[in-house]
């Protein structure tokens, strides 16, 4: 054995030969250190392997459950499928990304590239949806209507349009014809209405108001208003219902009946007006007026008969004249009851009241203007549209405005306001037509009193106011009255 130690094959440990010295310090110790290091290295490696095996076993257990071949095979199958699915998912993700990019482009084109823009766009689209639904409803309704009209197809609609256009033309033509016919009918009706006032006679009866210088008579002026009638005047100056030596109104009617130049059946309008010349009591007045009306009704069976008692001048009718008017009006009215052809004209005595310009100075007979006014009232009566004289005036008492209104022979008075200074206790001068025939006594509230009325008056002179005035009458006032004109 050499002095140079032989070495083991794997770790080069010293091997002692027969002749080698016992070299414990270097040879033996060196081998021990080699063995120790090698063992430590392998132990560490073994422990590392064991640690990895433990970790791998835990991983395998987490992946496979029990560490068996069957579980491994089953897991491999799943993992293989997962791989396949992952590949497909990747492909799908790639496609989705492409679609997302495309959708982003589309959304940008739609103006919905941001949440705010998308919200606005959605609002618009929602509204568009509602509008579309409404439009569809209307379209469906229109379709139903068109079907009902027989215009459910283009051909049907064209055919119906042709018919409707023709109908429109026909309607226009008919409207023109109807308009023409309406005009003709109106002319015919007017003509029919005129038949009463043409192709016949106007006969007049009366006193000097109808028998005077021609232009100053109501009879002549009335004849000009009925140009299609032949005028026959039987009036005589000084005549009346009950006079002597002059033909009365009844005798005038008899004279007309006896006139062979007049066909009584063709008398279309017969008018009698007057009465101021009469001297009679109430009984005689009613009898004579009734006699005249009955005579006219009998003599002229196809005529409009008009009677106007008591024509008068611009003066105020006296008490005696009013009593006479009462009798004549009552008698005429009694004779006309039930006869639609007879018109009894009331309140003729106020037609000219206070109108001095209608009479020559100092003359009770009207001038041409006055005659025309009287004729106009009689004309409206002949047309059965008489309304009588209408007049209106205001008279002030302090700050109180009092209205005076004439209608149908009655004057109505009404006013209220303040009288700050009583003065002489009189209102403004009255209009001539408002002057009464006698004193009118009425109550007037003055001084704002609700319990103590004051006596008021309206005098024939046109003066009106408070009787026995005092300063206590100053203040708020109210005045009302009515009386015959």
Topology (SSEs and partners):
Layout: E1 6-7, E2 14-15, H1 24-64, H2 69-109, H3 115-148, H4 154-194, E3 200-206, H5 218-224, E4 229-233, H6 249-258, E5 267-274, H7 282-299, E6 304-309, H8 319-336, E7 342-344, H9 368-382, E8 390-397, E9 400-407, E10 410-419, E11 440-445, E12 454-458, E13 464-466, E14 475-484
Parallel strand pairs: 3-4, 3-5, 5-6, 6-7
Antiparallel strand pairs: 1-2, 8-9, 9-10, 10-14, 11-12, 11-14, 12-13
Helix pairs in contact: 5-9, 6-7, 7-8
Overview features:
alpha/beta; 9 helices; 485 residues; 14 strands
Summarize the structure.
The protein is of the alpha/beta class and 485 residues long. 46% of the residues lie in helices and 17% in strands.
């Amino acid at each position: 054995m050499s002095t140079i130690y032989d070495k083991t094959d794997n770790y080069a440990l010293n091997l002692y030969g027969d002749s080698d010295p016992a070299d414990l310090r270097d040879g033996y110790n060196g081998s021990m250190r080699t063995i120790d290091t090698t063992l430590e290295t392998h132990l560490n490696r073994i422990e590392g392997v064991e640690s990895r095996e433990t970790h791998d076993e835990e991983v395998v257990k987490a992946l496979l459950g029990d560490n068996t071949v069957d579980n491994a095979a089953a897991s491999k199958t799943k993992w293989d499928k997962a791989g396949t699915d992952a590949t497909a998912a990747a492909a799908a993700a790639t496609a989705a990304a492409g679609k997302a990019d495309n959708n982003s482009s589309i959304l940008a084109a739609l103006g919905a590239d941001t949440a705010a823009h998308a919200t606005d766009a959605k609002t618009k689209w929602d509204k568009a949806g509602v509008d579309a639904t409404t439009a569809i409803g209307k379209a469906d309704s229109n379709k139903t209507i068109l079907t009902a009209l027989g215009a459910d197809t283009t051909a049907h609609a064209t055919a119906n349009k042709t018919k409707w256009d023709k109908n429109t033309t026909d309607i226009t033509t008919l409207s023109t014809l109807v308009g023409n016919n309406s005009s003709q009918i109106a002319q015919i009706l007017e003509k029919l209405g005129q038949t009463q006032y043409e192709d016949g006679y106007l006969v007049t009866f009366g006193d000097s108001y109808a028998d005077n210088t021609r232009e100053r008579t109501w009879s002549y002026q009335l004849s000009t208003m009925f140009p299609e009638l032949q005028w026959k005047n039987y009036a005589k100056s000084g005549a009346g219902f009950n006079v002597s030596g002059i033909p009365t109104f009844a005798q005038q009617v008899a004279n007309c009946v006896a006139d062979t130049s007049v066909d009584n059946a063709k008398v279309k309008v017969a008018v009698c007006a007057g009465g101021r010349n009469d001297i009679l009591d109430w009984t005689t007045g009613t009898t004579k007026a009734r006699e005249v009306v009955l005579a006219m009704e009998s003599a002229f069976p196809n005529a409009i008969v008009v009677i106007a008692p008591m024509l008068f001048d611009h003066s105020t009718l006296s008490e005696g004249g009013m009593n006479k008017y009462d009798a004549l009006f009552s008698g005429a009215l009694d004779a006309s009851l039930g006869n639609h052809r007879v018109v009894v004209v009331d309140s003729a005595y106020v037609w000219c009241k206070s109108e001095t310009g209608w009479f020559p100075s100092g003359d009770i007979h009207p001038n041409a203007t006055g005659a025309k006014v009287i004729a106009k009232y009689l004309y409206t009566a002949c047309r059965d549209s008489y309304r009588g004289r209408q007049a209106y005036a205001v008279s002030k008492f302090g700050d109180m405005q009092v209205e005076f209104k004439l209608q149908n022979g009655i004057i109505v008075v009404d006013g209220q306001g303040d009288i700050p200074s009583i003065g002489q206790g009189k209102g403004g001068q009255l209009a001539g037509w408002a002057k009464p025939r006698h004193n009118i006594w009425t109550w007037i509230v003055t001084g704002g009193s609700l319990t103590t009325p004051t006596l008021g008056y309206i005098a024939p002179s046109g003066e009106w106011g408070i009787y026995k005035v005092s300063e206590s009458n100053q203040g708020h006032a109210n005045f009302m009255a009515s009386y015959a004109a």
